[in-house]
């Protein structure tokens, strides 16, 4: 079996975004397996796959945790470092990102971003994994920390 090389030089934000994307893709894959093979058959394929790739057991754990806790669609944003929050420029970008991912109106998206700015934290749910990954990337670009 070939060993996977880790690419160095990525920022922590890039690494977290790529990991989030991998977890979301794995969730979609697991859901597709269950749809195709049924619950029992899908789980058997899932387990057999990870028996062959033990180095990815942490991803497996993240996927199962996300599915059990319902965090598959949730995005929680915080202002981790207020110095990274450039006020209005980032606020407008954050509102645009939230509107695109949630299909909310301007008022709802602005209220959510205002709440994050005021309280330092906010959580929302996104229906599609691709919207979630895009939202995470864009909110991080705005200076928010995503957990």
Q: Topology, pairings included?
A:
Layout: H1 12-52, H2 57-69, E1 74-78, H3 88-102, H4 106-119, E2 121-125, H5 129-141, E3 145-146
Antiparallel strand pairs: 1-2, 1-3
Helix pairs in contact: 1-2, 1-5, 3-4, 3-5
How would you summarize what this structure contains?
The chain has 147 residues and is mainly alpha-helical. The protein is built from five helices and three strands, in the order H-H-E-H-H-E-H-E.
Structural class label: mainly alpha
Terminal Cα span? 33 Å
Q: Please give the oligomerization state of what you see.
A: single chain
Task: Give me the number of helical elements.
Answer: 5
- Average pLDDT rating: 77
**How many distinct domains?**
2
Radius of gyration: 17 Å
Strand order of the largest sheet: 2-1-3
Description:
- It is elongated and about 50 Å long.
- It folds into two domains: 12-69, no CATH class; 74-146, Ribosomal protein L7/L12, C-terminal domain/Adaptor protein ClpS (Ribosomal Protein L30, Chain: A, 2-Layer Sandwich).
- The chain is 65% helix and 8% strand.
- It has a three-stranded antiparallel β-sheet.
- It contains five helices and three strands, in the order ααβααβαβ.
- It is mostly helical.
- The longest helix is centred in the N-terminal third of the chain and has 41 residues, at 12-52.
Features:
disordered N terminus, 147 residues, 2 domains, mainly alpha, elongated, Ribosomal Protein L30, Chain: A
